[in-house]
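REQUEST ID: PR-0412
SUBMITTED BY: lab tech R.K.
PRIORITY: routine
TASK: structure prediction, single protein chain
INPUT:
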Amino acid sequence: MKLKYILGAIAALCIATAAVAQTISVPLLASLGQSDLVQVIKGGAPSAQSTYATVGSIAGVDQYSYQIPLTGFAITVPNFTSLLYLNPAGTLATGTLTMSATPSDGQRFCVEDTQTQTAITVSANTGQTMLTSIGLGAVTALVANTRVCWYYNAPLAGWIRTQ
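STATUS: complete
OUTPUT:
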């Protein structure tokens, strides 16, 4: 009779050990920064072609760049930026905006200016195009406190204006 109890206890210990051995430990992070990258596993199936996204793009948080430009400015949008907020001292006559160098497919980018910008040139970065024939077309000026937005289409390697 004691042998049955001992064998039962050993069997239970083996099953418990096997269950613990299959537990996957997930590392815990104290915090993530605005430009930290997180691996995206599409459909829950990992592949050799890793895809990464910024924390803000997953959480839906604007990753912004706040700038105080002067007339004749030239700004290249920092990578992973979804909102460029311009706050000049007054109306600006000219300026150039160049899109970020490494956008991800579907990345949204907006620019908002607190003052009127009478003439602005918006350019794609190297290897990209501004797809002005799709969407709302080209931007030639900025109206105070009005957002202008695009999203990046990787298959077309271009920016499409949506707002």
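NOTES: The helical segments are 2-21, 55-59.
REVIEWED BY: pending
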